[in-house]
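Posting for a labmate who doesn't have an account.
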Amino acid sequence: MGDKKIVYLVGDPVEHSVSPQMHNLCYKELGLNFEYKLLKVSSIELEEKIKELKNPSVAGFNVTIPHKENIIKFLDYIDNSAKLIGAVNSVKNENGILKGFNTDSIGFIESLISDAKFMPNGKKILLIGAGGAAKAIAVALCKENISELTIYDIDKEKAAKLCENLKTNFDLKVYPLDSYEKINQAIINSDCIINASPIGMYPKTDISPIKEDAPFRHGQVLYDVVYNPKTTKLMKIASSKGAKTISGLGMLVRQGAAAFELFTEKVPNIKTMWNAAEEALGLEKTIIF
């Protein structure tokens, strides 16, 4: 089988991650001599740790908060899509050359189409959030030729900056919302509403980025990237008005599968990864296949 290869999750914090369970079960299933480990790295330690990860025993590593953007300057090569997004979440070690990619965008689109059964082409989208996850989602949506994208973030400058970047690279209508008071009208005008913020994530499960009087309706899709809890307060609000709701578990699993293939050059079983994630999170099993 050869020497064992290690894959890490680099971030701070990392203790909450279910990635080891997802990846290690698939390594075992495919008979691969790989192991996925957590590596807590502070911002101060990042540059030195990245140098250490050029070790031949390391196949690559995933990157999570707060390093997805800052890590770029320490890598040898950045994929064009990751450059456009401005964030990296997967790094492959090729003989000491560290190559950065972003599988969040791949995972989101695959989940939106496969899990939500929503085809984004020609649709109007409202995106809540303008951080790392939102950037990956926005670029992925633009590549799918949506007709219009509206972005809201509590940090108005961040939302405006993301919109300007997208308009520079894509020929479509992109609008930042300059106040929360305009969000209800944006919901009315949208085919799909996406929460790309962490609002509503465990343990603060009693909050929502959108208020309960929001005018969701039948025919809309609400995609919440939060996957713990399985049903967020935002999902409950949207569902009560008739909208179809999807959690971020599919994005988590599918971006993980894309990273798995990047590191091992093998295709994992999505069902195995999905079940491992649900078990690790203590969630009730979902039958999706």
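Reply:
Got it, the structure tokens are right above this. The first strand starts at residue 5 and ends at 11.
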